[in-house]
Amino acid sequence: MSGSASQGSDYTLSGTHKKVTIPAGQSSATVILHSIEESENDSNETATMTLSKGAGYELDNNTATVTITP
């Protein structure tokens, strides 16, 4: 994960830390980002997930970016 938002203070992710499992026979997996409400007025922040190439699969697009708005 990268971007201007910080995991733990701005958002949490579902699942296992730094791991996404795509089940055999499937072509996708779901990761849920939960924003954390902050008491201070922040500006919009981004969180970008980048997937790494590995043996046995191909990636059409290896990044996804979301914007967290206050």
pLDDT < 50 runs, ≥5 residues: none
Strand order of the largest sheet: 1-2
Distance between the termini: 20 Å
On the 0 to 100 scale, the average pLDDT is: 88
Question: Number of helical segments?
Answer: 0
How does the helix and strand content classify structurally? mainly beta
- Beta content comes to 25-35%
Q: What would your notes on this structure say?
A:
The structure is a single chain. The chain is mostly beta strands. It has one domain (about 1-70). Helix content is about 0%, strand content about 25%. It has no helices and four strands. It has strands at about 10-15, 35, 45-50, 65-70. The strands form two sheets. It has a two-stranded antiparallel ribbon with strand order 1-2. The chain has a two-stranded antiparallel ribbon with strand order 3-4.
Topology, element by element:
Layout: E1 11-13, E2 33-35, E3 45-50, E4 63-68
In brief, what are we looking at here?
The protein has 70 residues and is mostly beta strands.
Search tags:
single chain, two-stranded antiparallel ribbon, 4 strands, 70 residues, elongated, mainly beta
